[in-house]
Amino acid sequence: MIDMMPATEEAAADIIRGHAAAGRPIAIYGGNTRSGLGSQLAGMDRLRSAGLSGVVAYNPGEMVMSVRAGTPLAEVEAALEENGQMMAFEPMDHRPAMGTSGVPTIGGIFAANVSGPRRFVAGAARDSLLGVRFINGKGELIAAGGRVMKNVTGLDLVKLMAGSQGTLGFLTEVTFKVLPRPKASATIVVSGLNDPQAAAAMATAMSLPVEVSGAAHLPQTVKARFLGGALPEGEATVLRLEGLEASVAVRADKLAADMERFGAVSKIRNEQSHVLWREIRDVMPYADGTQRPLWRVSVAPTAGHQLVAALRLEAGVDAYYDWQGGLVWMRMEADAEADALRRYIKALGGGHATLIRASDRVRSAVAAFEPLDPAVALLSRHVKEKLDPKGIFNPGKMTGAAS
Amino acid sequence: MSEAIKFLDPRPSVLSRRKDIIADLIDLLPPEALVHEARELVPFETDAFVAYRRVPLAVALPQTTAEVAAVMKYSHRYGIPVVPRGAGTSLSGGAIPQEDAVVLGLSRMTRILDIDYANRTATVQAGVTNLSISDAVSADGYFYAPDPSSQLACTIGGNIGMNSGGAHCLKYGVTTNNLLGVKMVLVDGTVIELGGKYLDAAGYDLLGLVCGSEGQLGIVTEATVRLIAKPKGARPVLFGFETSEEAGACVADVIAAGIIPVAIEFMDKPAIEICEAFAKAGYPLDVGALLIVEVEGSEAEMDATLASIVEIARRHGVKTVRECQSATEAALIWKGRKSAFGATGRISDYICMDGTVPLSQLSYVLKKTSEIIDRFGLRVANVFHAGDGNMHPLILFNANDPEDAARAEAAGNEILKLCVDAGGCLTGEHGVGIEKRDLMRHQYSEADLAQQMAVRAAFDPQWILNPSKVFPLEGRNAA
């Protein structure tokens, strides 16, 4: 096993051409902060993006940034912060919950399509991604997309690369859209709702013209783990508003008035609100230093609590909800219960479950990524063959050791 | 009729079997779902890119996914090209058929299957028109955000094929950002579902790949789209400037100040005159360029945002600021803008360009565009989505004069190359179709194009789906 850290696209292409010719697999790494996600890539040569670092182009007036893939996320966020801007999709940090270390890279964020609470109204990482440069499995440099906000020129390989977990190519540069950072933020807390009541309250909040940009439900079992236990008595259903100070104040009053029929309402302002949503984003309740199986489940918003209720009849499950109830963070008490979980997801209208964390024993037995319908799996395999004909990039990472 | 853009040569093996193919399709489909008489085929020979036309072999107008699958399975078996068609409003020739093709028209699949407010989704058949989704949910306080100018006629299936945009995309994104799932028929007739009422893909983002693929990866028959709660209020405001350059610079500064209105639309003097004559929207006629800026929210929010925009506009010497006083007036302002293409069509033939450029290049590209147009001795009207740099120069010409038509095409190509060279792209929302196909090498390297074509071939190895489109006809074997 060797570690390779090319400093140029040409060097990366050379490495990949060599490995393709030899049929030698490569594990692709950014900061390796999601080490342990998906099938093990033990013993393979490692191709790291860290040598490809730095901002290529950033004109805040255009709200677009081009960055080399290995650039630390913190560096990108600092540059944006300086100009009062942000990535709208609010990428989460996997390190606390996964118990990993390392430096998150911007390439890794897009390769794994990492998003946070704002995703359900502002889009995922893939929605902000405008252009990529990558080396395909033949060692060719490919550019897709561009640096303009609207672009339908040819096939959208940009979307394909986002979330492909390094199985289709080695990202060398990403160009993405940024937005002005909201000047103010407030969170309305509705207290004492059970899961179904919270789902109804969140759906109502989303039907109002107040532009809710975060909607999460924190049941009793997790609530004390947020804001150092400072949330009010009872389960907390939290609704975030962002924007100009005056506008946030007006919308917060309107939303609070509408939410009073569901339960006791209180408000959290700016800095505390930021902290709360960062904790929700980074799954802090389950940053518990254990290897108890942690699932990230995406279903229709109204299906989230039904899924948890159904599973509870069979297994020990702790859970909380983001994305209006559609993103369920689920920690199992003992076994991963993958079959039951995936059966109920199907029965409740579909979605997908990703095993974010588990012991090596569990991980070797459970497909980390949602198994695909056979026709879609076949199509995906064909797509992979077109980008990585020799199958050298992260083999089996998304599909399991079997394929 | 222009002939500069070539189509693939019809496959003799298909043409020679025309009668058999029609007989087989008659067996496969209900009687009303097949069109094959010569005079009935005429309406399908072109789309809104009317300079080119080809009469198809037959037109299938299925009403169910199963019927679509049957046509695909049959066509795949015999290597018959299939050209999908929504409402035929493509401005890039995306729905123009070819002599050996079966047109698969989705216009009779018009059922709204499910409206789910709690999950904020609508599931509709592909032939449902864009506007009818918003119409169906408007009374309950929701809308579907992408709003192409042709939204009264264009279908959601066509929108997905072209990843359509519209005036309000600055805030809400284009089709791909508002599409949650599709049911689609693959080239061999297999029916798959991608996505649903949940977010993000399990596995590769094939939904993102399909959106904007111009009917080359499969036939979308149903779609699940995002519904959004309507803002409390929305107000378009007119800003008149002496010159296009001033208006362009104002747009860049508004965005740079961190203000994202819902829409910023730009019209130059010719466009203002054309639209005003048609819609009587009250556009000022004494200015060189006009911005329509729409803000939304509560009255107080709109006032605050507008005040900031007015301040920036004053720095760029704005001559006229006109806020509309009523909903009727607001509707008129949008009517004028959205009928720009139709209104232009009343006074002249035109071709509509669709390049997108970085905001910092707007003024430069506008200036260069007018130089190119002058050099070719043509006229142009500019009307476009300035907030996201998506330009629509309408090049006016006389279609009855082949030399004039050729000049217009040549000028258009130069303008698109200008957009690419300025750091932009050939098409922001209309698609490549046949119109921009032969310019693809100006934007992409051989390796880039070969990679796209290879991925395309993963879905359609025989290249029977809309085969004359998007990719230059030469060099396809390399994939």
TrEMBL record, chain A:
**E.C. numbers:** 1.1.99.14
User: Gene3D superfamilies of this UniProt entry?
Assistant: 3.30.465.10
All residue ranges annotated as the FAD-binding PCMH-type domain in the record: 1-181
SUPFAM superfamilies assigned to the protein according to its UniProt record, in alphabetical order: FAD-binding/transporter-associated domain-like, FAD-linked oxidases, C-terminal domain
Name the residues that span the membrane.
none
Q: Which UniProt keywords apply?
A: FAD, Flavoprotein, Oxidoreductase
Q: Which GO terms describe its molecular function?
A: FAD binding; glycolate dehydrogenase activity
Task: Supply the enzyme class, top level.
Answer: oxidoreductase
Matching entries from Pfam families are given as: FAD_binding_4
Organism superkingdom: Bacteria
Tagged with keyword Nucleotide-binding: no
Family annotation (PANTHER family): D-LACTATE DEHYDROGENASE (PTHR11748), GLYCOLATE OXIDASE SUBUNIT GLCE (PTHR11748:SF103)
This protein's name: Glycolate oxidase subunit GlcE
Q: What is the lineage of its organism?
A: Bacteria, Pseudomonadati, Pseudomonadota, Alphaproteobacteria, Hyphomicrobiales
Could you tell me the gene encoding this protein? glcE
From TrEMBL, chain B:
Q: Where is the FAD-binding PCMH-type domain?
A: 52-230
The coenzyme or cofactor needed here is: FAD
Q: Which UniProt keywords apply?
A: FAD, Flavoprotein, Oxidoreductase
- Signal peptide positions are none
Does the record's keyword annotation contain Transcription? no
GO molecular function, a single term: oxidoreductase activity
The entry's protein name is FAD-binding protein
